[in-house]
Amino acid sequence: MRLLLSFLFICIWQVSFSQMTFSEMKNIQKMDLNKFETYCLSRGFEFDETIDDEYNFGMSYVKGNGSSTKFLTFYEVFFIEEKNVVQYQTSSSSEYLSFKSQIEGAGLKLTNTFTKYERLFKEYNDLNYEVILVTGKSSDPNIDFYEIQLKRKKLN
Question: In 3D, which of 91, 60, 64 has the Cα closest to residue 73?
């Protein structure tokens, strides 16, 4: 019985630890690339790619494979004007719904919904943050993906 309880505790701990939270994304958003690298590697993510073009500069990390793959990307520069934008991508609908519940519970309001490139975009805002939730299909049409983008609003 004790072994069974220990096993259940470890399973629950791993599931809760591996899910991205709104609070965690806000903390990542305050990092620089060096701290972001340390954060990702210490949580089992592996380096995926550097993003460096005329509009963006950042790094992307990956965890898992197949339908359990998760991507975490940090942009120091995003479409020239934005700074410190965090993107998280998962194929877990429960993780997506949990995150959506967290941002709604934090007071962010749905301000815009639209489709583009066969994907559904939902924009949530409050005074400090903009969160964009994206639902779509991956290159493997049988796998849904959910992307969460967080950026801090500029103070006027």
Answer: 60
